[in-house]
Each structure stands twice: as structure tokens, then as C-alpha cells.
Amino acid sequence: QVQLVESGGGLAQPGESLRLSCAASGFFFRTHAMTWARQAPGKGLEWVSSISDDRRHTYYADSVKGRFTISRDNAKKMVYLQMNSLKPEDTALYYCVTGWGVSGSRGQGTQVTVSP
Description:
Helix content is 0%, strand content 48%. By secondary structure, it is an all-beta fold.
């Protein structure tokens, strides 16, 4: 079955960086687009970024464009989210999701907290 394990979250100060990782297994990874989504306390699941199966196409929410970078390593079955210039509003539980949107399979999430 699909298994996604996110890691790399933690506590950061505004302006700092974090790199999230997602280890995928249980499906043919290299044929699937992958997405990062997040959920802030009391809010719904928000799409953050997606990457095509061949890494040629990447998309970002306006709120993170220019600060976050999505990437993947098909040989290692890994997806990454490099987060720079973090802001308090980036505080959320971050999920790795199969496919282009937020409705696919997802892992347990990794918490990112941005606070002075």
C-alpha cells in the first residue's frame, strides 16, 4: 500500500530555512506527480506546491512562490521541499501527497513552527 513518511520539520525563526523530505513506497513513484500541502491550526488543507513525474514542471502557491522549492529524486523515491525566508504564517503541519492536488494519499505530516 501507499506509504509516505515526511520528516525535516521543526522550530525555526522568521527568515530561517528548513528542508522537508518525504520517503515514498508502495506505488510506482516515478509515474506520479507529487504535492506538498499544509494545514495550519483551525484551517483546512492548503495546496503548497506540486512537481511532475519527470521533474520538468513545478507549481507553487502564491504565498510561497520565490521562497520554497520543490524537488524529487525518482531513484531514491524522495520528494523535498526547501523552505527559505520562513514566515510565521508558514506554521503548519506539512504533508506529502500523491498526485497534483490535495486529495491523494498522504503521510502523517511533519510540523513546521515559525516563531521569533
